[in-house]
Amino acid sequence: MGDERMSADTPVFAIAVAAELAGMHPQTLRQYDRIGLVVPGRTRGGSRRYSMRDIEQLREVAQLSSEGMSLPAIARLLDLEDEVRTLHRRVVELELALREERANRPGLRVFAAGTSGSVMAVPSGRRIRRSTEVVLWRPWGSTPEHPDDLADDPDDSAR
């Protein structure tokens, strides 16, 4: 296997080992698989293989079930936890993309036209005098919903 690393999602445990690690009977794991509560990976031959995340979920199911939570409620909770994990990964991806975009963007991104018609770049944070300069371009996403919003904001700094 070389330098490959296993993650918490790598399916490695046979059903007997997973059942022992989760403190359950193998038949219980088969039932949870059938109803879609904790669905393990499968080998090419169709054997179940459980990951550490599956084991953790099985332990969580046992805990919640012992506290009186129904299996449909537990299934919904596990689905929501998976969704949170997926959304967290997406947020990390988007933050990375935003960081890269900001690193590749030149510092001066707002332009203004003077009364003589000259165009100049406006540094971030510089206040534009509305009586003599008009903003021509601003980065995507920073445009107000209505053009009149610019005139209404007395504390509006350079955009």
From TrEMBL:
Q: Where does this protein have compositionally biased stretches of type Acidic residues?
A: 150-159
Tell me one Pfam family matched here. Answer: MerR_1
Superkingdom is: Bacteria
Signal peptide position in this chain? none
Identify the residues that the record assigns to the HTH merR-type domain, covering every copy.
12-80
Q: Which GO molecular function, any one, fits this protein according to its record?
A: DNA-binding transcription factor activity
Key word DNA-binding present in the record?
Answer: yes
The answer on whether this UniProt entry bears the keyword Calcium reads no
Q: Which UniProt keywords apply?
A: Coiled coil, DNA-binding, Stress response
User: Where do the segments described as Disordered lie?
Assistant: 139-159
Coiled-coil residue windows? 77-104
Which PANTHER family does the record cross-reference, listed alphabetically? HTH-TYPE TRANSCRIPTIONAL REGULATOR YFMP, REDOX-CYCLING DRUG-SENSING TRANSCRIPTIONAL ACTIVATOR SOXR
Question: Know the name of this protein?
Answer: Putative heat shock protein HspR
The lineage is: Bacteria, Bacillati, Actinomycetota, Actinomycetes, Micrococcales
